[in-house]
Every structure is written in C-alpha cells, then in structure tokens.
Amino acid sequence: MITDKNKPLNTSGIIIDKIQYWREDNIHAVLNWLREHNGSEKLSYNVALNEYFFESPSGKHMLNKGDYIVIDQYRNFYSYSPRITTSNKDSIFKELEDMRKNLDKLSGDDPLKLSFELSIDSLRDFVLDVEADEN
Predict the structure, then answer these.
(1) Cα 40 to Cα 49: distance, rounded to the nearest angstrom
(2) Range of the domain at 56
(3) What is the C-alpha end-to-end distance of the chain, expressed in Å?
(4) What is the domain count for the chain?
(5) 106 and 52, same domain (yes or no)
(6) Please, what is the average pLDDT of the chain?
(7) In this structure, is residue 9 part of a structural domain?
(8) Which pTM was predicted?
C-alpha cells in the first residue's frame, strides 16, 4: 500500500496534483508548487538536521528524496514515500479492487460510497502515474 511514513494512504478526496521531491535537485520547484497551491506553510527546514519536514493531517514527517507531496480536491496536503514498483503494482491493484468489493455492501445512494469509489479510482490513477514517472 502507498504509505505516509508507514501509515495507510487516507486522503479525504481525489488526488488532483502531485510533485516528487528530489532534495537539492528540485527544492525550488517544490517550493513554487506549494506556493501555487497555497501550501507554503506545510514545509519547514531544520538547519541542524539539514532536512525538510512536511506537515500533513497525520503529523509532521521528514521528507526523503523521492517522496511525493500530493493535494486532494479539498485542498488537503499529504506526503508519501513511494512504495510502488512494477513488482508490487498488481498487489496494490488487487487491494484496491478488494476495497471496491467491500463498497458493494453500502447502499447505492450512500454518499460515502461515491466518495470512496472516487478515492479508489484516484489511488489507481496515482499508482499508474508513479509507474509512468519511474519509466
């Protein structure tokens, strides 16, 4: 599963944009991206550790080279360490499909059902985007 420093991916909506952090190679691009999305306050720098930290709804996390910062449709920001590779993509898709099957237990007009279905579709798209970034 995609993780936020080993916590399950749990956005409140559809992932609408993302950027990958490559430390010195693109810190200016990351800062500009956060400014464009009004999220500059989410990033802080610790001089003593020479590391950037990102504030998400689940807490403050050190950003590692290769981590993604994503924003959902509700303007919530999250940071994720990519745990997606070609070798585990199929197991992630199976997990997403299992989640979708569990949604069948909810009634068709339940607003949570639509929200979860959209989130599952968004996660699937995110997995495909990460795979494309790797290639």
Answers:
(1) 20
(2) 15-80
(3) 20
(4) 2
(5) no
(6) 75
(7) no
(8) 0.57
